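Sequence in, structure out. Go.
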Amino acid sequence: MLERAFRGSRRYWTFLLFLLILSLIGLLFYLRQLDRGLGITGMGRDISWGLYIANFTFLVGVAASAVMVVLPYYIHRVEVFGGIKVFAEFLAASSILMCLLFVLVDLGQPKRLFNMLLYPSFSSVLFWDVVVLSGYFVINMLSGWFTLDYEEKEEGPPSWLKALLYISIPWAISIHTVTAFIYLGLSGRPFWHTSLLAPRFLASAFSSGPSLLIVLLLSMKRFSGFSPKTEAIEKLSLIVAYAIVVNAFFLFVEIFTVLYGDVPEDLMHLRYFYLGGPGSRFFCVSWISSLLAILSLIIFLIPSLRRRTNTLFIGALSAFFSIWLEKGIGLLVPGFVPTPVGRYATYFPTLPEIMITVGIYALGALFTSLLFKVALRNEPA
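Output:
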């Protein structure tokens, strides 16, 4: 099967070369960061998490969303997902790879990751997050690869593979729950102190991940001979519609609680998120995210729009980027600003920070492209 990844048209190889160049550029900037330290990023004493952790948080959700295809297929016997389940598992594996890379670059020095593994602190939520993420990567790679192998042999999955697939369902829930616990464990950051944070993470994951999968499936339909079943896309879009509604409801509950409770400390963070403050450069992020969420909500809730390929593609992209903005910088920066002492710090990612992020995404896209090419049973058009 692996040989399929190295067969393709000129367009396929040009795309891979483009991703490889972006990855190498990101590597060069990372080598510069290794030499000069995290001081070349926009992070500092007051805002110690930036673009790296924002994307790490978002991508954990994309990875967890694979369960929305695996669970219906294996538990509820939704057979239409049979042709896309492997793509969902491979997308999850690629997302986890990017997550681990974002943790690596955020640590500053690679040896710190090895120290975490050699001298584990079992009271550290970050340690457990790395453990569950690594385990989830292995689970999805093994389940996706061997599922594809047994399908090509026209054999049913063995009992050990079925057990692995069933384990992946609660494991997917755990990876994003543990990620939420990292935020909840910071006692000096009241913006994240809400019992709804983990459910919000999961609701947003179940809208962003399937949205990205829809975009990728429709793109493959356009650029290759692969044609996913229309019913599978419709059921996947229906899952996204429900998840968007639940995520919007959770956000409304959070805003209502803060405004009605009128707690000054909570109001400062919410006001900074939506109205900005001294030195704020991201207050527009909340409004852009809200507008994209409304657009995606309209498209996914109206069946006639949801069933059209063009509008579905726009709706899925809108949902994906809405969650990326809200769950990334939109969640992270307001949690740090204002600081516990009332100081309004400023943060904006620097060029090295942005290029390292682009490089990691390019490497993830390269890995995803190779895996998807293996999963395709026909040559691209």
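Check: The chain has 15 helices and no strands. Residues 54 and 331 are 8 Å apart (CA to CA).
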